[in-house]
Amino acid sequence: MARPNPDLIAALRRTAQNLQKGAPYQWGHMGSCNCGNLAQELTTLTKAEIHAHALAVGRGDWNEQLNDYCPTSGLPIDLLIAEMMNAGLTSDDLKNLEKLSDRRILERLPSEKRYLRHNFRDDVVLYLSTWAQLLEDQLLSEITLPDFTTKKEKAQAKSPSLILS
Q1: How far apart are the first and last CA of the chain?
Q2: CA 43: distance to chain centroid?
């Protein structure tokens, strides 16, 4: 699963908000599909540039691009994928995003919403929002705040005084 970090969480939420507000969405277009919309948030590339990078190698959809991904190829699509991975994603995250299929995300949904359709905007928005919340919960669970209890409060906690009425 993705490495939880504030920038990735924010990008997932922005992507969901953009889609909810009507950003271009077309599952068969590499720059405006599930991964393409997230790529727009994580990189400086437009949907047209993302699509052109993908078509330049002629590998098909995101799943095929990820199967053939080579971090040292220098190909624009591989540089794009590397940038997304540097943001905290894994190739499995991207494959799951394209199909809306990560079990950990789906398990957080109400049972009647667990069968998402990969070519439906509202399902993509729900998936992205739920994923962002999952990563935020993971990130927050890793944070340990220092103990701000004073010495006096600690002493009182060890030997509570009896209150007689």
Answers
A1: 57
A2: 14
d(CA 58, CA 47): 17
d(CA 90, CA 119): 22
Handedness of CA 147, 148, 149, 152 (dihedral sign): positive
Q: How many CA atoms lie within 13 A of 32 on its CB side?
A: 12
Mention every residue, 6+ apart, whose C-beta is less than 8 A from residue 157.
149
Query: What dihedral angle (degrees, nearest 10) is formed by the CA atoms of 84, 114, 17, 45?
Result: 20
Q: What is the mean pLDDT of the chain?
A: 89
Q: Judge whether 84 and 42 are in contact, CB under 8 Å.
A: yes
Q: Which amino acid is at 21?
A: K
Calpha distance 117→135 (Å, rounded):
22
Q: Count CB atoms within 10 A of the CB of residue 161.
A: 6
Q: Which amino acid is located at 76 in the chain?
A: P
CA–CA separation, 56 and 31 (whole Å): 13
Q: Which residue ranges make up each domain of the chain?
A: 6-144
Residue-wise pLDDT for 55-112, tens only, equals 887 767 888 889 888 888 988 999 999 999 999 999 999 999 999 999 999 999 998 8
